[in-house]
Write a sequence for this structure.
């Protein structure tokens, strides 16, 4: 693996709305420092695609000068930076205060503040609970997957973007703390109820592994909900410990991404070296490479959907372009912008788009997404198992 790893991903919703899901299955914030990617939420039902972000819409020196000038005048450097980014053509640019950025870093370690549920939008515009984190506030309140989430603090969710609903669940400012309260309106089986929850500090389990079937040619299902620190190694270990000639189903649906370095480690589990992705930073070209020694023969199917984003798209594109996996599901979100952080005088951090990445075959992801080899809807898992069986894997 060569070259620095920058962040990949949008922050189209600034401040409270921007501090939302990075990790599927939980309510968290997501971003990083230095060489890490960050991501924006989308429901698994997302079908829209963002317009491609401009490569260098804000000059970093101009931003630094504006922030420094404001600070020298006794004004807010953060506000000055926000004003400049807001006026720019950088769709994914955003500014975060010191507290928000600290939350981002903690989220990439698998820690977050929330109520322990994820949400999805259904075809009729309603918002349903997609998953409940075991032991979290939502779980203790008896909330279950497929419950309809009708209101958050009295505001209706019908027809609203999932990102906005999640942001409200997540809270902002003084409400984005463990112990802060949130009131949820819910429906189950036509019966309405209200739950008063208190947000808590929770941890995630980004990679889970289970066997489907028995025998040496059974299927190993690896579900990766995010690329937090260590997730790539967990995927690699799961592949190495898979029995016999068992096929692998790598489920990246609703994976909001995370650390690009972890996605490259995951790619190394299935590739014997070679190119994973290329990216440009202000016109300078870079490349990411897999380590040698991965399992290149075990049958592999990758599941994706509209919630597969950023680093997860990078991994999908690498395995698809290099002919290592058959991809099954619906088109991915389409987020491939490269962003770099700039620290401001008051400790805030501004992130500006500086480039885009491409798959090994040279395909851009930003605003396009990745179309799977087998396009299928709700029956994606069943179809994936059928495809895997045809490749010689699975029971």
């Amino acid at each position: 693996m060569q070259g620095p790893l920058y962040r990949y991903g949008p922050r189209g919703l600034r401040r409270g709305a921007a501090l939302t899901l990075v990790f599927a299955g939980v309510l968290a914030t997501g971003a990083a420092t230095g060489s890490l990617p960050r991501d924006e939420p989308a429901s698994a039902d997302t079908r829209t695609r963002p317009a491609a972000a401009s490569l260098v819409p804000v000059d970093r020196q101009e931003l630094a000068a504006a922030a420094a000038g404001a600070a020298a005048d006794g004004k807010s450097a953060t506000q000055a930076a926000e004003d400049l980014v807001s006026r720019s053509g950088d769709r994914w640019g955003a500014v975060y205060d010191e507290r928000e950025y600290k939350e981002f870093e903690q989220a990439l370690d698998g820690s977050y503040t929330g109520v322990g549920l994820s949400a999805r939008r259904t075809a009729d515009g309603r918002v349903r609970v997609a998953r409940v984190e075991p032991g979290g506030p939502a779980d203790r309140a008896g909330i279950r997957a497929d419950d309809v989430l009708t209101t958050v603090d009295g505001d209706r969710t019908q027809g609203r973007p999932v990102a906005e609903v999640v942001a409200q669940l997540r809270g902002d400012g003084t409400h984005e703390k463990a112990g802060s309260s949130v009131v949820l309106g819910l429906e189950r089986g036509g019966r309405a109820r209200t739950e008063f929850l208190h947000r808590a500090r929770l941890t995630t389990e980004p990679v889970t592994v289970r066997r489907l079937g028995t025998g040496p040619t059974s299927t190993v299902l690896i579900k990766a909900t995010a690329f937090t620190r260590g997730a790539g190694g967990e995927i690699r270990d799961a592949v190495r410990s898979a029995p016999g000639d068992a096929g692998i189903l790598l489920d990246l649906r609703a994976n909001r991404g995370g650390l690009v370095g972890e996605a490259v480690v995951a790619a190394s589990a299935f590739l014997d070296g070679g190119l994973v992705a290329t990216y440009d930073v202000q016109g300078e070209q870079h490349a990411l490479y897999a380590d040698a020694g991965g399992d290149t023969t075990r049958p592999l199917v990758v599941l994706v959907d509209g919630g597969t984003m950023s680093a997860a798209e990078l991994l999908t594109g690498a395995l698809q372009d290099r002919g290592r996996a058959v991809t099954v599901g619906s088109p991915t979100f389409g987020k491939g912008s490269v962003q770099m952080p700039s620290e401001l005088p008051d400790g805030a951090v501004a992130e500006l788009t500086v480039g885009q990445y491409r798959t090994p075959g040279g395909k851009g992801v930003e605003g396009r997404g990745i179309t799977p080899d087998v396009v299928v809807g709700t029956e994606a898992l069943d179809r994936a198992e059928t495809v895997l069986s045809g490749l010689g894997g699975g029971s």
